[in-house]
């Protein structure tokens, strides 16, 4: 069948402006999108730049957007994208600096972030040249996490990265999970501190897009949640985050809903004059726009007493 | 001086080229020895071919069968290689592999485990005992992640998507390397005392291949050009089980673990044909009936199934079945695990295979048989090295992994590659560092030579001949597939040589469009130089070895010849020409010979 590919082009050494090239090639019914790309490159345009290595969905190099869906070109069948007509749009994945055409800056996108979480094992001291004895079940969870292809699809789906490219992102934080939960690792607390660094686990907004996008079922969002829980349980959480959580819980417990003014103040800390000063412009803006009517009153909600009982029950059970 | 300023230049003690298992391990070791080390790789870090290794890493840990030890592993490796192996390499490999596996675990690798919590080992072809430590069927991925993380931890400088094109020498000694960045197309010059080649093989010159785009024989070619010897390059392994359908996935690997875990090969008549192909050499240790073969899976005191004969034997058998008209609709044979093992077992043991067939071929391997056929997989031959130090015949040049030759002889056993990478990768790093430390003289890079190389490399942009590099590559793959394939004859090999000469001529007429920034057409034009040189070396060596042994099968000389059992075919480049000679194998000590000749 004749398929027309409309491919994103960017050639910084040419005119530098992104555009699109159209190529029509004849492909068999069971062809993959990569078959189409290789045919274009081999027969029509040797300058079209894209990455392709294993050609069987193992290496994650050919990650791209195919008519809006982010996936591997080598395992994506053309027929899945041509139901409405013989046209396929190819674009680089989102949230990344593009080098040329479909080739993106791997260092900035993934590698530097993964390095930042120190993804290597720092093993406990043990007898030399002797194996660790570890139950298979314990290792199974970690093996799942480490089945990651480094394809970047989780970061591509992330909703934080488009607004803050410095966020470590789900791919890197999943590697932080692996070392934090590896029973062979030396220092779990230090691992959690790394995961908690600014732009770390606390910047995740729990949209679960990463878990939706992961082709390996690694569930990065759930791993980030697990890191946050563990950091909290071990009482090593970042002070401000801890205060934020405590204030949040306390105000819901007392009034049945969040007291946002109190939350802001208590999160900064009552003695943190510098932090409190920083709130003033935001508070002023809120006043001007009618978001914080004066006098500031936070009243109990109906049913607040029942919510308080739920809290108390939960606290008892935790003990 | 002016020329030098033109190029981005870096100075190191040791430069490691290639970042698969061997390169990473070499760089880790060199860096640990305290020398300034760079790791240069053609693709992104962590995407090298090692990532695709499935089944496992062979090491006589004895966790599943306490009877296993290095001597048995040594014997299996030598016999699998039809005794063409360098005995000393096979001995070092078998002795050191367990320590390297434990080291990987210490660095974070996650292996499947036995009931007692030890590293689990699985069955593979040619290994007497279950010996392959593994992580499901994605062992290579685990290994490369472990090594890359460890390398990054050590702070090794990594140059990725950086392609080395020439080795530079001062007199006889290595003094540097010259290449280009894929991303920008700009040149880069490394000045160094020692180089470790860990660049893999050249399987991309064949049409049906399990090898990725990187496998263009670059390391073998730069070594040849620098004056190093090659041995055994006629020994190309065709893995018996590659996918055959649909066409776009033809050649993609199906792990030997399928057979290790109970899968059997069947022809179109439903017959388990491997019982008809048991060679005399392995008769004493191979099961003769289906009943006996199946009993082996339960108890290794029985003789092993012929489905797990070494790869060369199985590949030839499949080839013969298809030729005799007993193949599948798409020209392969059936590999059936569906009727032999429960679905959940298959999914647990072979998750990647399950997904691979489901996604790429729409075949559910828990309910249907797979269609498989031989695929070009591995170079047993390559750069000649010293068994202990991995030093090549060029001072300052070391080699480890697939690019080096000797360990596997005429045929490699599955699982022996990943162990090769870490055993000899470590040694390469160690001895390259030692060489660099001990070298006190001064080295000078000849900038005129560098300038001339740079001019050659950009020549395709000025080419007016109109040849398309992709068209040359396609023709080369056709030629190697049909005329330098599994079964060879002198007539066809000579025809191939003639064709290779025309391809070389066409390469001088290549024209590449666009600019130097990430230009895949240009990259291929440069890779073709390597692929053609390697193809020529393989073909010449295949003509020279007038016998059949391991990965080299001659239709016109179908028997093994004791005369050729004693020699390596050597290729070297002198005055721009490839020269062929036969040189004696190192003599094996008596006590090791006894081990190898043991019949059971």
Key structural traits:
heterodimer; A: about 325 residues; alpha+beta; Ubiquitin-like (UB roll); Fumarate Reductase Iron-sulfur Protein, Chain B, domain 2; 3 domains; about 40% helix; B: about 600 residues; alpha/beta; seven-stranded mixed β-sheet; five-stranded mixed β-sheet; 18 helices; 21 strands; about 35% helix
Structure described in brief:
Chain A has 319 residues and is of the alpha+beta class. Chain A is 42% helix and 11% strand.
Query: In which range does the helix fraction of chain A lie?
Result: 40-55%
Structural class of chain A: alpha+beta
Alpha-carbon Rg of chain A, integer: 25 Å
What letter string, H or E per element, gives the SSE order of chain A?
A: EEHEEEEEHHHHHHHHHHH
Question: What would you note in describing this structure?
Answer:
- The complex is a heterodimer of chains A (319) and B (600).
- Chain A has 319 residues and is of the alpha+beta class.
- Chain A is built from 12 helices and 7 strands.
- Chain A folds into 3 domains: 2-104, Beta-grasp domain (Ubiquitin-like (UB roll), Roll); 106-234, Alpha-helical ferredoxin (Fumarate Reductase Iron-sulfur Protein, Chain B, domain 2, Orthogonal Bundle), CATH 1.10.1060.10; 239-318, no CATH class.
- In chain A, 42% of the residues lie in helices and 11% in strands.
- The longest helix of chain A has 17 residues, at 239-255.
- Chain A starts with a strand and ends with a helix.
- The mean pLDDT of chain A is 90.
- Chain B is of the alpha/beta class.
- Chain B has helices at residues 2-6, 21-32, 70-80, 87-106, 139-153, 218-225, 257-260, 280-283, 290-298, 311-323, 343-349, 351-361, 416-438, 447-462, 469-483, 490-507, 520-544, 590-597; strands at 8-17, 37-41, 57-58, 121-122, 132-133, 157-160, 162-170, 173-181, 187-197, 230-231, 236-243, 264-266, 333-336, 370-379, 382-384, 397-399, 404-405, 487-488, 553-554, 567-574, 577-584.
- In chain B, the strands form 5 sheets. In chain B, strands 1, 2, 6, 7, 8, 9 and 16 form a 7-stranded mixed β-sheet that branches. In chain B, strands 17-15-10-20-21 form a 5-stranded mixed β-sheet, with helices on one face. Chain B has a 4-stranded antiparallel β-sheet with strand order 11-14-13-12, with helices on one face.
- In chain B, strand 20 (567-574) and strand 21 (577-584) form a beta hairpin.
- The radius of gyration of chain B is 23 Å and the shape is globular.
- The model of chain B has no long low-confidence stretch (mean pLDDT 95).
- At the A-B interface, helix 1, helix 2 and helix 3 of A face helix 4, helix 5, helix 12, helix 15 and helix 17 of B.
